[in-house]
């Protein structure tokens, strides 16, 4: 939450060096608005209140003034010569009490006076001592009066702290250990964290572990002797249900990776049965593959060069990837993926790309283009080994994209192993084409294209 910015006052004691009580105290003020911006050449309202013994003490004097700032946002004020609201300035018992000066500002914009802080006056502002003035003060501590070498008194206004914090990492799988960093300003001295799961802490930089999947709202309350402030971040910490492995209907186990808030398989699919238990047609012959139609019911799978030991997984037609026109899966959108997982849509691929790319974020229009797009997303998705011609990535995302090649639609020929990887999305054009992703050894970005449904591409699954 934003708090009001401070007014800084300069008091000049030259007018006080005479043998009787003065009629007021000269103050020079730099006036800023509530965002901290100087306010030049504007009429403002000022209200001063002297409080007894504490910042919440009994008021003993109050006055208001109307002033106009100069071109530098300065005004010169004589405290004690404004319009008295209550009390008598000349009768204030300066020596008898600890006094606090409260300052309020009215920008004349219809919202009245705003509290700009309260300051303890550690010494008598003026006293008749041997015909002159004696002022004592510390060395510029916030909230006190300090004297410069030239005899100028600077009143440093107390500040209510402003709460702010960050967390690292804010998203992960359980158990998630989160480090919270206090970024509050204006010198808080107390901290109270509410982690949203029933746990709290009074440490300034706590580390907290979340054990249960869910979204957690975190609140930090900071304070000092002058006030408190609070910042709340709704749903800030997200603990994602992303198991470290997933098993398909054939019993094959796959490693997984959490990327942003998406849980992906870290390996290409190699399942041979639909979720309902039916077998996926296995086609080895090139001519038989070439005879497949670009429709949602010409299902087939194979391995690159018919090598079932391939680390690249299996290659599937679009019809097979979507579970024979979505007829042989158990849940809408599942396709040939394991229970609780599904064939990712084009939109979900775009979210992945925007999260991983360092230049174009999620939602950027660049991801809608049907071409090679992005800046370095391909580099961060590619595995660190296995790509020909120096095309390895850094795999900083953990996705571990492999160059599994593809099987051509018209003649069943295999191409591009070691140089390109191709993955189906669940999204098609309603006819003979479907959207897929293409990652190449010679590209730092990722391709998004529509191509024939009878091509043999790899499949990655995403958790529901």
The largest pleated sheet is described as:
5 strands, antiparallel
Beta percentage is 35-45%
The poorly predicted ranges are 1-22, 123-158
Shape, per Cα inertia axes: elongated
Strand arrangement within the widest β-sheet reads 5-2-1-10-9
The proportion of residues forming helix, as a percent range, comes to under 10%
Helix and strand content put the structural class at: mainly beta
- Total count of domains: 3
Compute the average pLDDT: 86
* Record field, number of beta strands: 31
Counting DSSP H or I runs of 4 or more residues, the number of helices is 5
Distance between termini? 36 Å
Overall radius of gyration: 35 Å
What does this structure look like?
With 464 residues, the protein is mainly beta. The chain folds into 3 domains: 8-155, Sandwich (Immunoglobulin-like), CATH 2.60.40; 165-239, Immunoglobulin-like (Sandwich), CATH 2.60.40; 245-463, no CATH class. Helices cover 6% and strands 37% of the residues. It has 5 helices and 31 strands. The strands form 9 sheets. The chain has a 5-stranded antiparallel sheet with strand order 5-2-1-10-9, with no helix packed on it. Strand 29 (433-440) and strand 30 (446-452) form a beta hairpin. The longest helix is centred in the last third of the chain and has 11 residues, at 346-356. The protein is elongated and about 110 Å long. 36% of the residues are buried.
Q: Which SSEs are present, and which pair or pack?
A:
Elements: E1 8-12, E2 25-30, E3 43-52, E4 58-68, E5 74-79, E6 83-86, E7 99-106, E8 114-121, E9 145-147, E10 152-155, E11 165-168, E12 171-172, E13 176-182, E14 190-194, E15 200-201, E16 207-210, E17 214-224, E18 227-239, E19 245-247, E20 253-259, E21 262-265, H1 286-290, E22 301-303, E23 314-316, H2 318-321, H3 323-326, E24 341-342, H4 346-356, E25 372-373, H5 377-381, E26 404-407, E27 414-417, E28 420-428, E29 433-440, E30 446-452, E31 462-463
């Amino acid at each position: 939450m934003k708090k009001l910015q401070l007014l800084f006052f300069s008091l000049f004691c030259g007018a006080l060096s005479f043998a009787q009580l003065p009629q007021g105290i000269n103050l020079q003020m730099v006036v800023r608005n509530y965002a901290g911006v100087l306010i030049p050449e504007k009429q403002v309202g000022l209200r001063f209140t002297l409080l007894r013994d504490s910042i919440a003490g009994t008021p003993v004097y109050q006055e208001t003034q109307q002033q106009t700032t100069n071109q530098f946002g300065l005004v010169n004020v004589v405290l004690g010569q404004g319009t008295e609201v209550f009390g008598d300035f000349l009768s204030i018992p300066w020596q008898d009490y600890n006094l606090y000066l409260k300052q309020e500002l009215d920008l004349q914009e219809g919202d009245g006076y705003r509290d700009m802080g309260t300051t303890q006056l550690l010494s008598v502002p003026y006293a008749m001592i041997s015909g002159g003035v004696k002022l004592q003060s510390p060395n510029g501590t916030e909230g006190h009066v300090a004297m410069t070498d030239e005899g100028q008194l600077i009143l440093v206004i107390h500040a209510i702290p402003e709460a702010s914090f960050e967390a690292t990492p804010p998203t992960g799988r359980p158990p998630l250990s989160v480090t919270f960093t206090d970024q509050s300003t204006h010198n808080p001295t107390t901290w109270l964290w509410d982690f949203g799961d029933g746990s709290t802490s009074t440490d300034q930089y706590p580390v907290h572990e979340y054990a249960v999947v869910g979204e957690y709202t975190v609140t930090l309350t900071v304070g000092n002797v002058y006030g408190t402030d609070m910042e709340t971040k709704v749903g800030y910490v997200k603990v994602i249900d992303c198991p470290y492995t997933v098993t398909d209907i054939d019993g094959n186990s796959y490693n997984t990776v959490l990327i942003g808030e998406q849980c992906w398989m870290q390996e290409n699919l190699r399942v041979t049965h639909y979720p309902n238990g039916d077998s996926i047609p296995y086609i080895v012959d090139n001519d038989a593959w070439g005879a497949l139609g670009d429709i949602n019911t010409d299902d087939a799978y194979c391995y690159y060069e018919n090598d079932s030991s391939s680390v690249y997984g299996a290659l599937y037609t679009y019809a097979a990837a979507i579970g024979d026109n979505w007829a042989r899966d158990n849940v809408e959108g599942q396709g040939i993926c394991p229970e609780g997982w599904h064939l990712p849509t084009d939109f979900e691929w775009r979210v992945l790309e925007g999260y991983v790319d360092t230049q174009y974020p999620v939602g950027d229009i660049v991801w809608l283009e049907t071409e090679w797009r992005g800046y370095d997303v391909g580099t961060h998705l590619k595995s660190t080994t296995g790509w020909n011609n120096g095309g390895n990535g850094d795999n900083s995302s953990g996705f571990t994209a492999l160059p599994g090649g593809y099987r051509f639609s018209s003649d069943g020929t295999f191409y591009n192993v070691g140089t390109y990887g191709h993955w189906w999305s669940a999204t098609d054009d309603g006819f003979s084409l479907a959207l897929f992703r293409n990652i190449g050894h010679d590209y730092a970005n990722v391709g998004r294209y529509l191509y024939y449904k009878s091509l043999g591409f790899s499949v990655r699954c995403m958790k529901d």
